């Protein structure tokens, strides 16, 4: 009994020694709530940011889909359209440094929300000229317009037609010029795109850093990968929206569509390009709303409260004691500085050594040069791909945008994913990443070379590509527009109102075809007694013609199918090398210079590729024009007809030349890496371990799957086709 009582005493005394700590339960409860609050907040931000990425990718790709529509609507050359396209990058560059530096110190979600409003304002501004510059006027002879008056196309007698149908008099030109003042409203499109670039600037740097700061460390890469994946969906919808709007007439809702004498297959057709910008602007407004209600800070996860750096960063920092000591001294100096001016001065003094260190890295410099030249090639190719398909294969704008959105862009997304999957599956080291990136570019441009054989011949256009007697055109185009068969007609060489003769030849106008009579109105007009139409087969017999140009040759639809297949495979092949190249960039620079190196890389791509490429590609394409349109006030308008063969050689040739030069730089990168890699590294690589970019350890260069998800983005990825 005594023993038993002692045991009981000890039992109760032990229980009294260990009292219940209610505060611990309270702290656990609060930590649990904080964790749920953190996860909930970051997921809301993730959803909002994904929607913003979708919105900006949609509006950017929609602009690409309306290049030819804008060119025709404002009657401007391709080179000027290239300037409009490059204005987005200019706007982005104007404030990127300010946003990157000051944005992190301010309310990041609200800055992103403000950026969405600016982006939507720019998108709306692009559409505004439609409501102020009057109705679209295409060239049509009066006989094709619904009218009770029958007018002969071949104006042998001036009294049989009103003055407006003849060569414009000076009085008429001056009157038209007053109304044509809206032709300079393309400037508003340029300014709107510039505003889009300014508004888009804070989305990526502030959005990604916000996720990285407040997400659980192991989830951060996954969240960023989700955002980038959603960004790929945007261009698909952007081009599909472009396809839909291209089928609708530009002045839909403002004019009676029954009176429109052209169809969406006509070269003068302009779709409702402005409608898509209103839709894209509204989506941008909706995307920005949630950010005004998100907090400036979220509760940090428990595993990141005691450390301002991630575990991956700490691995890099502990590898190099010298760099660690240097960084520690810089931090101590910054902490001791009481004024912001001293901190700024300290940063400024560190800038030049960092820049020297970065540009002293041969791998970084060579890869930067390779990327700049390759993006010149790809951005130029993507910008004018819709125009190339329309002019080379005779496809409509609607079908072209549909094909690009539904076939090419998914191939790009699959290629990006495949590149990351290959890196993870085969545990490829930095040297292997360089080989994969080089192989992707080499085989991609090799496939592109085959497209030279998949073009269509020029359509037979009397006076431009063939003579009125059926021979190939070799003389001056303007002089060749006139022939004996139309010498008795009062025709203008500036008109562009094509008709298709029953002999399969296109004529620039019914007048130049020598047509004496017409029957019907609008799209159903038929021209008779066309003296030039009968010339090719039997000069003594006159024939008929219908409104609109003749279709391309019978082989052209088959060539277009071959082009699509090769284009999709090429898009996939080139995209496979995107992720390995990005990994190569990250692994061959010192850890503390990563952000700076990526900033310089992005800046160089935008300034040296994003801005100039559309301009000089446009200038080169303009040199292949056979027939320029004329503005009402005189001067050259948009191109009406291109030389198909010359366009193919210029467009594909320029792309391939730039791509080939970039491959030489990629070979140089691989050579430098091989030279710097030790035999031990290559042995380890063969065994499935990580190689190195220099003399660092395997641990420093290991690429895990989470990091691959995080780094599957590079500039202009959404539109690399």
Automatic annotation (TrEMBL):
GO cellular component, one term: basolateral plasma membrane
Any one GO BP annotation for this protein: sodium-independent organic anion transport
Compartments where located: Cell membrane
Region (Disordered): 301-323
CDD domains (UniProt xref): MFS_SLCO1C_OATP1C
Gene Ontology MF annotations: bile acid transmembrane transporter activity; sodium-independent organic anion transmembrane transporter activity
Topology in membrane: Multi-pass membrane protein
Family in the record: Belongs to the organo anion transporter (TC 2.A.60) family.
Protein name in UniProt: Solute carrier organic anion transporter family member
